[in-house]
Write a structure and sequence with these properties.
The complex is a heterodimer of chains A (243) and B (281). Chain A is an all-alpha fold and 243 residues long. Chain A has one domain. Chain A has nine helices and no strands. Chain A has helices at 11-24, 26-50, 58-78, 90-94, 100-129, 134-137, 140-162, 167-193, 212-239. In chain A, helix 3 (58-78) runs parallel beside helix 7 and helix 7 (140-162) packs parallel to helix 9. In chain A, 28% of the residues are buried. By secondary structure, chain B is an alpha/beta fold. In chain B, helix 4 packs antiparallel against helix 5 (130-143) and helix 9 (258-267) packs across helix 10 (269-277). The chains are: A mainly alpha (243), B alpha/beta (281). Chain A binds chain B through residues 1-7, 10, 12-13, 16, 19-20, 23-24, 26-27, 86-92, 94-100, 102, 238-239, 241-242, and chain B through 46, 49-53, 69-72, 74-75, 77-79, 81, 83-89, 93, 97-98, 100-104.
Chain lengths: 243, 281
């Protein structure tokens, strides 16, 4: 790094911070990769054992693996700022000469970009081993799942900064509480406006984009909501103080 | 270098811990920050390093506010906290990952300090004892060559030879362009290194003087119990009283008994400070 430390955004510092995150989380990453490899080997072995009977299981196995990929990603994201939760390790993080934006960018790169790339490669290998065609992997259904993952990942990144302990569980509880609250408000409003029985309320679990317009709107919606939560995470990180 | 102006701080739902604090720290000095338990020393250090935000007032390092946590300002300070956790890395890996953030980092210096402390940097840090980890972090902090170096209870957990080594290492540093703050209760361990004494009491700085000024104004003497000598503060001891007395022109420069001085400042704050306000007798 240059001798004069500048306050403007530095890709060198982001790279160094990324190396630091990876080194600190090396054990967790290795365990995750080992688990992923084990699951792929186990599934391939099961498919070989069951032979023809297993041919229709491909998509189900893929979806199951995708769910694992998502929740492991959320859990991993929740650990990104664990250093801040302990008075013993927080000074190392707070006083590390990098901007809050750089610290958050590096954490996002590791927990979203790199994780998603590695995870999708693993899922692709799994889909091939499961006897699925490569085109299914690149289908709109897979893309639709990715939009949802992107949004929830940003929520968990915010939870990683916001909560001071048990970040993964705390984020899930907060999300459930928010959904229940919104549901109750919705019910109250619908009851007041037009009568309860004429309205239905469903929690969206995936973004369904099948046409070009829908894809564009899904991308925009994902970008806006994700950016919003990443911005919240930035503000929280900037203003967070040692416990 | 470090300027604290009208700084106040309170934890939520608590009475103010620090109120209207003013302090000016200059490079080339080793400051001793003292205070009773709960006086707010660690809180003040956390504010100085930008880890806590003051309720009001300013904390500036070279004119830049610490609250901003800008990389330029953070690269000029390093803190060794009293209690700390180090990541699950080897010492070498820790150095490799963290040294690029400090532009004046001296790799030769850290290796020579680690050699003196007999620390093997190829070991995993969490596998070292607390004292060894502390020595590693002290070595790293010194090697950063930051303008401001803060050591919170640096000798806690160090064995007796290591305390001497630590004193020797700090004494050998060229601190003309650096400022070191040592917060400690171990006044006997570190008293000889300090050239400026700052005492926090009831949320305020009640004493802030250079050791030269202290020896000029006060004298620490052992006087007979029967003697009629007036003293500001005294502690009975075998065969007499260890006392703080106003210094006279005839007194030569003497060592400061930091423990006695600290107790005196806590017990007789106004009387001691009075000696620094008027003309020298």
């Amino acid at each position: 790094m240059s001798s004069a430390v500048k306050n403007s955004f530095s890709t060198q510092r982001v790279t160094q911070l990324s190396k630091r995150y990876i080194a600190i989380k090396k054990n967790m990453i290795l365990v995750g990769l080992a688990a992923m490899a084990s699951i792929i080997i186990f599934i391939k072995a099961a498919l070989i054992y069951y032979g023809d009977a297993s041919h229709n299981l491909g998509p189900s196995i893929f979806m199951f693996a995708f769910v694992i990929f998502q929740y492991a990603g959320y859990a991993f994201t929740s650990t990104m700022f664990n250093e801040l939760n302990s008075a013993g390790s927080a000074p190392q993080f707070y006083t590390l000469p990098a901007t809050t934006f750089e610290k958050l960018t590096a954490a996002w790169l590791i927990s979203y970009v790199y994780y998603t790339i590695v995870g999708l490669i693993a899922l692709y290998v799994l889909s091939i081993l499961s006897g699925m065609s490569a085109s299914w992997f690149f289908s709109i259904d897979t893309l639709n799942e990715l939009w949802t993952y992107t949004i929830f990942q940003s929520v968990f990144l915010f939870g990683a900064v916001y909560f001071k302990a048990n970040n993964f569980l705390s984020t899930i509880v907060a999300m459930l509480a928010a959904l229940v609250s919104l549901g109750l408000i919705f019910l109250l409003l619908t009851n007041l406006v037009a009568g309860f029985e004429e309205w239905t309320f469903t929690i969206p679990t995936t973004l369904l984009a099948s046409t070009a317009t829908n894809i564009v709107s899904s991308i925009l919606f994902t970008l806006i909501v994700s950016a919003l939560f990443i911005w919240f995470a930035y503000l929280r990180l900037k203003n967070r103080q040692i416990a | 270098m470090l300027s604290i102006e009208n700084l106040s701080f309170a934890y939520k739902k608590s009475k103010p811990l620090l109120s209207s604090l003013n302090l000016e720290l200059k490079s080339g000095n080793v400051y001793g920050l003292f205070g009773l338990n709960g006086a707010g020393k660690t809180t003040l250090l956390n504010i100085i390093t930008g880890m806590l935000f003051p309720k009001s007032g300013l904390c500036l390092l070279d004119g830049q506010e610490m609250m901003s946590r800008d990389p330029h300002i953070l690269s000029q300070l390093y803190i060794v906290p009293e209690q700390f956790d180090l990541p699950n890395l080897t010492g070498d890996k820790f150095i490799e990952l963290h040294h690029p953030f400090y532009p004046k980092f001296d790799k030769d210096l850290i290796h020579s300090i680690l050699t003196e402390f007999e620390i093997d940097a190829s070991n995993k840090l969490p596998e070292l004892s607390f004292g060894q980890r502390k020595k590693f972090l002290i070595a790293f902090s010194i090697a950063t060559n930051t303008k401001l170096l803060i050591l919170d209870e640096p000798t806690n957990g160090l064995d007796i030879p290591s305390k001497s080594q630590f004193r020797r290492i700090v004494a050998s540093l060229d601190i003309d362009s650096r400022c070191i703050i040592i917060s400690t209760h171990q006044v006997r361990d570190l008293g000889s290194m300090i050239d400026h004494i700052t005492v926090l009491k009831d949320g305020s700085i009640v004493f802030d003087h250079a050791t030269d000024e202290i020896t000029d104004r006060l004298s620490m003497q052992k006087i007979a119990k029967s003697a009629s000598t007036h003293y500001i503060y005294g502690e009975e001891t075998l065969g007499g009283v260890n006392a703080i007395v106003p210094s006279s022109k005839n007194d030569g420069a003497a060592d400061i008994d930091l423990e006695l001085l600290f107790n005196g400042i806590i017990q007789k704050t106004e009387e001691i400070e009075h000696e620094f306000n008027g003309e020298r007798s």
